[in-house]
Amino acid sequence: MSRERLVAGDYDYLNLLRSSMSEEMLKRLLRIPDPELHRWVADIISVARPSSVYVNIGSEEDFEYVRRKALLNKEELPTKYPKHTVHFDGPKDLARDRGNTRILLSSGEKIPLINTYERVSGLNEIKKILEGIMSGKEMYVSFYCFGPRNSPFTMYAVQVTDSAYVTHSENILYRVCYDEFVNQGPNLNYMRFLHSAGERDENGWSKNVDKRRIYIDLEDDTVYSTNTQYAGNTVGLKKLALRLCVNRGLKEGWLCEHMFITGVKGPGDRITYFTGAFPAGCGKTSTALMSDTVVGDDLAIIKEFDGIARAANPEVGMFGIVDGINPKDDPEIYEILNSPENEVIFSNVLLTDDGEVWWTGKVGEPRKGINYAGVWWPGKDNVPSHPNSRFTTSIRYLKSLDPKIDDPMGVPVGGMIFGGRDSDTLPPVEESFDWVHGIVTKGAALESERTTAVLGKAGEREFNPYAILDFLSISVGKFTELHLRFAEKLKIKPKVYGVNYFLRDEKGNYLAEKVDKKVWLKWMELRVHGDVDAIETPTGLIPLYEDLRKLFEKHLSKEYPESLYEKQFTLRVPQQLSKIERIWVIYSEIPDTPKILFDVLRAQKERLENARRRYGDFIPPHTFAKK
Predict the structure, then answer these.
(1) Are 518 and 509 in contact (CB under 8 A)?
(2) pLDDT digits over 463-493, tens only?
(3) What pLDDT shows up at residue 317?
(4) Which of 35, 53, 173, 439 has the fewest C-beta atoms under 10 angstroms from its C-beta?
(5) CA distances from 215 to 40, 118, 126, 550 (A)
(6) Which residues pair with 430 in a beta bridge?
(7) Distance between CA atoms of 100 and 94, rounded to whole angstroms?
(8) 3-class DSSP state for residue 525?
(9) What is the per-residue burial (b if ≥16 Cβ within 10 Å, else e) of 203-230?
(10) Element (DSSP H or E) covering residue 169
């Protein structure tokens, strides 16, 4: 396809490249036999006007060069451990910017619930913002795989940025695949990401946040990001690539998901693989790490092979929320983040004057230092470490890393999990009746209380279908239809589960502990293979008390009183009906919603109303029959 140009008309782009790059860097770029790529890089140089260009081919010398430049530019600050650094985004750049993140569409097109912009207008605007934006800075050009090598799952990407921090992050999070570009040349279909932090102030923060833009051009598989440093807005292969991946999956009939991929051990040597989707701050990373093996903690590409759904992780790193990580609840990740031998980039934590990194949950008290808003000392009126503080590190440090992370064919999916923050409606774990029921009532109907990972007021309940609404580039109606069509190709459909770790009692106390999710995982694993029975309720299948009691004793060595089971698994009919009403209203405004979604919701509403007539508003689990 002919790709979007930043500079109109023909010019001697090779001469421009020669005059802008060292001989070695030019040689690296021209080894890739793709003139269109060369022209694109030249266009960027012509418009953004960097002072130098560095082509990252993935050698250890390249990695070290980028690390040094991040420190030299003060994009990252040193700590007491040479392999640990701290990055600060600035107080106005601490989360994904929903308002200025837009899908570029042809004139007249709209997508319900998704922020869009007319494509030509958006491209003209971003080109103006890019003029001279890299002046005085070095530009980095990098080549990555979005998936395992030599895999039918894998997509490819070029990242161009003036941020050593962004390049450093991507070198940790993804496989550098320069050789694939050299070997395949113009035959390689790749995504393009162009980013600039823009002008930075004396603190190193992006100065012109009023010109912060994140524009996703679906027609061209290209994303433009300007005047921002927060990784969710800038690291191209993260949530920016997810939007492009979703769009390609729609065209080709497979799923690109905001999901972890983990293995849960069952009886004997059996491992069952699950994917799981949770909005930010809802237990996604901790659930992944509570599993027995980890293939991926955030993104999943799911395709059908021989009638089986298989999933692959496009990443090899973790970009997770560090706030709240502590040695009791998160022992493995806590150990990884505190090991001097592991490479870690911390963002928006507290960096103390003596070079310690501190976040909420870390052992010890915070001391004077600098944080996301500047100088901090005990007693100052802002929290020492931001609630959306993050860590970037390699997934290969995990003791529980599954060797299949590099398997070109991924892993078979036995179950799919959806979870959000819900204080008053859903039980800790519930199995859907079948794939369609699960996709509609667990995935498409997912709601969650907002966290600090996005700009806006925390605590408000939000509709977040599949935990991917912020990253959808297509209608949620089409995305739901895609899930239903995808399963038609499957001989064995994964079971679908809903989980909720945030149910509270009448006093506002959580009814489950963080570690309890291990039991919910073990129960789901047994259910995939039919090893335990379940109780059929109007909204799905829930565990028997005796099965959970045994699992709590076996895996957590703790008692599980029946009184707690009743509180957790009581059917809250009024709240369930209210949820159905909210979801119905939303999808009624989405023209391409498949009719079956309303059929499933209507049937669930009728079951709930029938149960209420017989048993009342709050129905204990033993009221229902075992299936």
Answers:
(1) no
(2) 999 999 999 999 999 999 999 999 999 999 9
(3) 97
(4) 35
(5) 17, 11, 8, 51
(6) 498
(7) 14
(8) helix
(9) ebbbbbbebbbbbbbbebbbbbbbbbbb
(10) helix 164-173
Q: Identify which of 494, 523, 521 has the alpha carbon closest to the alpha carbon of residue 416.
A: 494
**Which value, to the nearest 10 degrees, does the dihedral of the CA atoms of residues 468, 470, 472, 475 take?**
100
**CATH class belonging to 13-249:** alpha beta
CA 418 to chain centre: 14
Confidence of residue 450 (pLDDT cuts 50, 70, 90): low
Phi, psi of 441 (to 5 degrees): -90, -20
- Would you state the structure tokens that stand for residue 467, as one six-digit string? 């935990």
- The average confidence (pLDDT) of the chain is 95
Cβ density class 475-493: b for 16+ within 10 Å, e for less: bbbbbbbbbbebbeeeeeb
Question: 282 catalytic, yes or no?
Answer: yes
Rounded to the nearest 5 percent, the helix, strand and coil shares of the chain are 35, 25, 40
For residue 456, pLDDT over 80 is answered with no
**Sign of the Cα pseudo-torsion (323, 329, 330, 334, in order):** positive
Residues in the chain, total: 627
Tokens 């300007």 sit on residue = 226
Q: What is the bridge-based pairing of β-strands 255-257 and 300-305?
A: antiparallel
Element (H, E) at 15: helix 13-20
The pLDDT value given to residue 449: 76
Residue 193 CB partners (closer than 8 Å, separation 6+): 157, 158, 159, 160, 161, 222, 223, 225, 236, 237, 240, 241
Read off the tokens for 290.
Answer: 């509570």
Torsions phi, psi of 68, nearest 5? -65, -45
Query: Using one digit for the tens of pLDDT, what is the confidence trace for 372-429?
Result: 999 999 999 899 999 999 999 999 999 999 999 999 999 999 999 999 999 999 999 9
Domain range list for the chain: 13-249, 412-623
Q: Which DSSP letter does residue 202 get? A: T
CA distance linking residue 226 with residue 236, whole number of Å: 12
Letter for the amino acid at 291?
A: S
Percent pLDDT > 70 in the chain is: 98
Q: Which fold has domain 412-623?
A: Phosphoenolpyruvate Carboxykinase; domain 3 (3.90.228)
Question: 30: buried, middle or exposed (CB in 10 Å: 19+, 13-18, 0-12)?
Answer: middle
Helices (H), 509-559: 517-528, 545-556
Which of 145, 177, 245, 282 is the catalytic position?
282
Q: How much of the chain, in percent, has pLDDT values that exceed 90?
A: 93
- Decide if pLDDT at 38 tops 90: yes
∠ Cα 200 205 211 (to 5°)? 70
